[in-house]
Amino acid sequence: MPLSSLLPFYSHPLWADLALDVDPAETGPLILAAVLLSLVVIYLASKVGGEICLRINFPAVLGELVGGVIVGISVLHLLVFSEGGAVEPSLISTLLQQTAGMEPDLTALISQTSSEVISVMSEIGVIILLFEIGLESDLPGLLQAGLQAAVVAIVGVAVPFIAGTIGLIYFFHIDTIPAIFAGAALTATSIGITAKVLAEMQRLSSPEGQIIIGAAVLDDILGIIVLAVVASLAKTGTVEISNVVYLIISSIVFLVGSVVLGRLLSPYFLGLVDRLGTRGSLLIPSLIFAFALGYVAVALQLEAILGAFTAGLVLGETDRRRELEEQVVPIADMLVPIFFVCVGAKTDISVLNPLVPENRPGLIIASFLIVVGILGKVVTGLTVFGRPGINRLAIGVGMVPRGEVGLIFAAVGTASGVLSKSLDAAIIAMVIITTFVAPPLLRIVFKPAAVTIPALATEEGLAIASEARESES
Amino acid sequence: MPLSSLLPFYSHPLWADLALDVDPAETGPLILAAVLLSLVVIYLASKVGGEICLRINFPAVLGELVGGVIVGISVLHLLVFSEGGAVEPSLISTLLQQTAGMEPDLTALISQTSSEVISVMSEIGVIILLFEIGLESDLPGLLQAGLQAAVVAIVGVAVPFIAGTIGLIYFFHIDTIPAIFAGAALTATSIGITAKVLAEMQRLSSPEGQIIIGAAVLDDILGIIVLAVVASLAKTGTVEISNVVYLIISSIVFLVGSVVLGRLLSPYFLGLVDRLGTRGSLLIPSLIFAFALGYVAVALQLEAILGAFTAGLVLGETDRRRELEEQVVPIADMLVPIFFVCVGAKTDISVLNPLVPENRPGLIIASFLIVVGILGKVVTGLTVFGRPGINRLAIGVGMVPRGEVGLIFAAVGTASGVLSKSLDAAIIAMVIITTFVAPPLLRIVFKPAAVTIPALATEEGLAIASEARESES
């Protein structure tokens, strides 16, 4: 079939300004086809990976990450994302080229556009995940754990940063600015991975879970500030104090402001929801709230997931919480796997191959960063005070995974020319190991408590605990 | 804040090949912000429009379409899609430019990418809608109505096509090829709008609903074939018979094959689903099935929504139907409004303004096309045989809305240079009027029956009817 016979049943806004001679009526169905095929691949990877992990008693999310690695840049090249650089088209677009008779020129275009769409969908996935986590979290419990979470977050940023930077300078004779950058890459916990593992183990509302989630949220903000500082240091050699002050103030105003305002306004919000008669009368206003706060967070140079989490927290305090949770579950089931599979797919594990001689210097530095990265977070559990019987090890381990956030540090460092190739590879290796090791570790360290409160480990247990919490409040 | 201080917490595959000097780490959060803001606008438009329509006793989907018109290209310019041509950036990206300190150069880029993402999400929305409609449809009932639906579909394509073409040639002295093209644009019913209105009135499983849905699905396929014929006629002056034969065979093979194979394989599918233990164990395999069939449909040069509808039909025959329906509802609530608001937003109603002198020739032709477009479909109800007491008028009116499909005809015709400006405007006007008039008309013509079976008009009624149907089978 010639390309001209492809039937343009959907038009697309596309590339018109970019002086590319492409008819959007021709690319439209192809982009949709590429996105559909990508979603099929993502879901297959997430389910095969998740189910295998479940059977060998690992967290399902680890399986989704590994499934992503297998379909992604490292192995099968089915899902390929060009992170700043040009990359060969994914296998999916090559398949499209064959099944739909697409011209090779179009392949790169379709591949880029569809991977862009999948990227945004994966971000909406993690936004929905954090919204769900916020809904399931317990605001009073979180506030009660607030001071301890703050200490955990600050220690968990400071220890790996200082130990990493000094170690790189003294043991590896790395220059100060690259060492500071690599040290900074050790700081930010991936809230998504930790929260997902906790949710899978039904430990979100345990005291440990509350401290971990609170600390991970604060850690996320600290990570943003640290990145702003080191990025400006790398670019200009100085630190823009005004920018740091701006970030600190805006994050405090945002978090406190949205919770306080949200709690004040939620009765009016529910009153409005009660008067709506069309489909999605609770869901759509809640999504408007979550997406709007996500947008405000991005506009303040924070992260969208912080806004979604805060929106979930506020709506979780209302009496429509249970109903909203039930409606968010299928949406999360549909969108969240896209995020985890994409994180895996974007991870290039070839830097871990010791058989490649160029990898070896990076791997030696990586071993150091991994030790600092894990120990520097595990010690944070020791800072928790006044909570006899709490699982300190679990809190520390919960802060270990670096996930996508660490990869961004590496990408920014490499883009600004601060990081050498081996240091860049070492950071990526550290991110891979901490991300993939944390979920099973977390399951191991939480085991003893699971034996003492076995009911909590089942779905019924969660329902009972959740009801108990509701009747308390 | 300078652009350089924007914090790149998510990287994006983007534009790398296109010789644009854009750092994806800088555009990433902005694209996400633009998508989030667009979603907030879409949801606000859908809820405000839907609720107003509900209160004045119009179908909610009409409100979503009108809400889309108001936020779209016609009025507020908040959501702008560049359908093949360059368009000024949307107000959303201008707002982003101001709130996030974005450089003007980036605005066009962000605007295009985010509108592309929204476009694909809206298509996934209509895919989910048709999947849901398929789930709620009754395959035996649909097969029983098959012959009548086929007659309705064929008459509903032939009458407007012949009457439109001949009328344009004789009354308006338009050349043969443009007249054939405009006549062809009168043929394709928008299955999405009709199905949504029927679902809102809980009439999907009524005898009329079954015939309408069956006819709309066949009509969709006939529309694809007609478009292939006229597009090749417009381009080369001849008809590629081989292509027409290919389309007819592939659509028959696809529809029959996927239903037969699906019914054969569904026990194994359910057996597999029962063995899964991770979250979304029913939903994700079902989505894999729907998206994979959607992909196959696109690869066969059909439409993705046909694949999703067939997948829904097959899964609707299984005993997990009710459970799956419950999980699909919130997903449809989230994604379907994006489709209808986008259809409205893409519609430029300025061609309807009679105060603009250039519009007048088009409006006169449009009046003719509208009359032919409505009457040519309404008469199809008269062809229904052997069904005493059936609401023939409702069936005819159900086939009236042209929606997005008609707009594609206009876009293809204009792109290939066949349609004059006034004929193009006339087609767009015909699409607008048939789309916006059909939902309230459908509600009016269905009224009498609603009085005789009042229980069906309530949600409980649907549940009762649905249960009755289940116990029958």
Descriptive keywords:
homodimer; 473 residues; mainly alpha; Na+/H+ antiporter like fold; globular; disordered N terminus; disordered C terminus; Cation:proton antiporter (chains A, B); sodium transport (chains A, B)
Give an overview in words:
2 copies of one chain form a homodimer. Mean pLDDT of chain A is 82; it is low at 1-22, 448-465 and 467-473. Chain A has 473 residues and is mostly helical. The first copy, chain A, has helices at 24-55, 60-71, 91-99, 104-136, 139-144, 146-172, 176-185, 191-200, 207-236, 241-275, 283-299, 304-316, 321-346, 359-378, 392-398, 403-415, 421-452, 459-472. Chain A has 2 domains: 3-120, no CATH class; 127-347 and 354-441, Na+/H+ antiporter like fold (Up-down Bundle). Helix content of chain A is 73%, strand content 0%. Chains A and B meet through α1, α4, α9, α11 and α13 of A and α1, α4, α9, α11 and α13 of B.
Topology of chain A as a string of helices (H) and strands (E): HHHHHHHHHHHHHHHHHH
Segments of chain A where pLDDT lies below 50 for 5+ residues?
1-22, 448-465, 467-473
For the terminal residues of chain A, how far apart are their CA atoms?
Answer: 65 Å
Please bin the fraction of helical residues of chain A: over 70%
Class computed from helices, strands and strand pairing of chain A:
mainly alpha
- Helix tally of chain A equals 18
Q: How many DSSP E strands of chain A? A: 0
CA-based shape of chain A? globular
Number of domains of chain A: 2
CATH architecture of the largest domain in chain A: Up-down Bundle
What percent of residues of chain A are in strands?
A: under 5%
User: What integer is the average pLDDT of chain A?
Assistant: 82
Which sheet architecture does the biggest sheet of chain A show?
Answer: none
GO biological process, one term (chains A, B): proton transmembrane transport
Family (chains A, B): Belongs to the monovalent cation:proton antiporter 2 (CPA2) transporter (TC 2.A.37) family.
Membrane topology (chains A, B): Multi-pass membrane protein
Domain Cation/H+ exchanger transmembrane (chains A, B): 52-446
